[in-house]
Amino acid sequence: MLYRLLGRKRINKIFKVLYYLTLTLPPKDFVPFFSLSLYIYSHKPNKRKHCFIFWIMATKLLLTFAICRLIVTVGLTLEPTELLRLGLTVDPFDVESASVDFGLMTKVEPLAVLRPSSAKDVAQLVKAAYESSHGFTVSARGHGHSINGQAQTGTGVVVQMSGVGSGGKPRVWGGDMYVDVWGGELWIDVLKSCLAYGLAPKSWTDYLYLSVGGTLSNAGISGQAFHHGPQISNVHELDVVTGKGELMTCSKEQNPELFHAVLGGLGQFGIITRARISLEPAPQRVRWIRVLYSNFSAFTKDQEYLISLHGNQKFDYVEGFVIVDEGLINNWRSSFFSPRNPVKISSLGSNNNGGVLYCLEITKNYHESTAETIDQEIEALLKKLNFIPTSVFTTDLPYVDFLDRVHKAELKLRSKGMWEVPHPWLNLFVPKSKIADFDRGVFKGILGNKTSGPILIYPMNKNKWDGKSSVVTPDEDVFYLVAFLRSALDNGEETQSLEYLTNQNRQILKFCAEDGMKVKQYLPHYKTQSEWKEHYGSKWDRFQRMKMKFDPRHILASGQNIFTPTFLSSSNMMVMDIPIPIKQKARESIDF
Q1: What is the dihedral of CA 319, 324, 330, 332, to 10 degrees?
Q2: Which phi and psi (to 5°) does residue 561 adopt?
Q3: Which residues form the catalytic set?
Q4: DSSP conformational letter for 244
Q5: E strand or H helix at 376, and its extent?
Q6: What are the start-end ranges of the E strands in 31-187?
Q7: Which of 74, 321, 508, 544 is at 20 to 30 A from 376, Cα to Cα?
Q8: What is the model's pTM?
Q9: What is the pLDDT of residues 118-139, one digit of tens each?
């Protein structure tokens, strides 16, 4: 009604005037309206009509304030009506959700949150940031599984890419064996869409409730990576919104610089709004096998042998994990073993190896029509391995159940209140030549006999990784992922506290540096640009050039702490992108 009476242009002018008032009027000034209305309602029954008038006034003022705060965020480059159409919100629930992540170690509140319905919405927001006179940052958030606040920002807008209605459903192209998916789509939903056509992506992560854009901005690895490479090696094409607000399609042939920069680029060069993922025929079932080792050399020798095999005469998935205390092998992630028949470390000869065991985890995919031959194929492969003979554990399950195995563990942890806890994870790529030193110094040294979570270890072939991507790996043909996937518990036990585990991570990194191991962090987290330069090594110059080309104002993914936004000069750094410990009171980057 108001727009019909005054007209759109006049209303927009009014909002622009209110914008300047908002800069000096704190939200607490609106509180008396609510307090007064509640008092009247409670103590003056005959004045309740006035109560509702006050309430409506306060509500309208707060709505006006919210719109004006959005204008503060994006400047005056967009009209207020356009801000509302975009879906920008300062709703406390949305802001709170965007201020934390899976790591639960930092909290940074954005100025606003965008829930886009299309790539155009994302492009329009980023373009507004790029053209804004005073500037603001834009950080894409998938399913919120960052560890150290990488998708957070206190100086701009978080784009919530995941969610119902965003970007449309995956489109499967069976004849061409690929699927087009929205950047915020979860891998579990990609899997379900593809299985309807008897197809599936080739490379996975262990946990499927991650966004496509999120894993492709890092690499995306699991036990299939030795053969298919990481997820970024299985992408045909991308649609990307650059830091200039340009929506560009890229591939190895079209805009190749952007394509290679974005894959594994930690969100620095653009926001992935669409990905074209390579597919293969989906198997029906999986034979899942675990065998144990007390000798680290035999364990790694067998892992390296298995990832060298090709064709049908190989396992389809090769991973492993380290067991340094008896409880771990029967824990939530290892529910593979029967509770009625728990594995006892002491009965498997680990006492002669510093109390440490190593578990090789392998699978063979098959179709029900070939079930008769699968046992012979597996037996032939197992005969060439040197595991403890009495330690073979086998189960059989549908393909989708194997891929979604960690989610089942998540549900168990949630039921016990042990999922939403701090996760001081540390993921390292360790060169093959240094993995034995790592075992002696870390698994049998720094860790002691407590882990507070799974420790994964498995090798990958470097030739399955595209050297043109932004990801950094060790300079050896074979390197290992070592992942400390630990949870901090506030249960009074020092070795499970966040402080203890964080300090232990520092000890591990210090040991690697002093030993000259030349490890590289996967899902890296550094606080200074000099550390980032050391991390990227020979790739740094190109990384920096691509940043200047595609995000010259350093608008995107500022939570990574690689580049400082250009509008944050030393004289106007009023709000910083530095996370605070989550136990402290949240910093109010927007007092609303």
Answers
A1: -70
A2: 60, 40
A3: 145, 206, 319
A4: T
A5: helix 371-382
A6: 88-89, 106-107, 112-114, 137-141, 156-160, 171-173, 178-182
A7: 321
A8: 0.85
A9: 999 999 999 999 998 888 999 9
